[in-house]
Design goal:
By secondary structure, this protein is α+β, with helices and mostly antiparallel strands. Helix content is 34%, strand content 26%.
Amino acid sequence: MKIETCRVDQLDAMPNSGEFTYKEISILASLMEHRWYEKGELVFEEGTPANFFATILEGRLEITREGRHIFPDPKDNIIGEKRAIGFDALDPYPRNLTLRAIENVELLSLTNKQRQVLVEKHPRIAVKFYSIMLRLNSLQLRYITGII
């Protein structure tokens, strides 16, 4: 895995970025990391600390639990570009899924430590950010419950 600081233009191109001003995007970008994973590399593993939230910029990830796919249709176990991952970083429990890169993957991430800085120093931006996270999580739950 390779990590660099996020650039404003990367974040500005993401879905929902229109809900932020350019200054707010600049602040978010200063806190976020740009991460790359090679094909076959684990992004996170079930049972490990949930320490970051991310959005997939490029590539696809395979979802498993206890070494098996969690959805009956294999295509539903693959997530790709512009999908958010790591919502479990919002709670104190370990990850409940494993995500592995099935091709080279590029992410924009926000660690729990960076998220805490956002809350303490920029609470208004944090409220917008959390509203978007809740909406994305709700959409993913609707999608998942429609599959199962």
